[in-house]
Amino acid sequence: MSQTKQSMGPTAPSPHLRVSDIHKRFGGVHALKGVNFEVARGEVMALVGDNGAGKSTLMKVLAGAHTADEGQFFIDEEAVSVNSPHDASDLGIQIVYQDLALCENLDVAANLCLGAEPIKPGFSFLPRFLRPLDDLEMEVRAQEAIDRLQVKTLKSVRAKVGGLSGGQRQAIAIARAVGADGSVVMLDEPTAALGVAQTRQVLDVVKRLRDTNHAVVYISHNMRDIFEVADRICVLRHGANVATWNKNDVTPDQIVSAMTRGLDKEAQNAA
Ligand SMILES: Nc1ncnc2c1ncn2[C@@H]1O[C@H](COP(=O)(O)OP(=O)(O)OP(=O)(O)O)[C@@H](O)[C@H]1O
Question: Is 3.40.50.1220 the CATH number for 17-92+182-270?
Answer without folding.
Answer: no
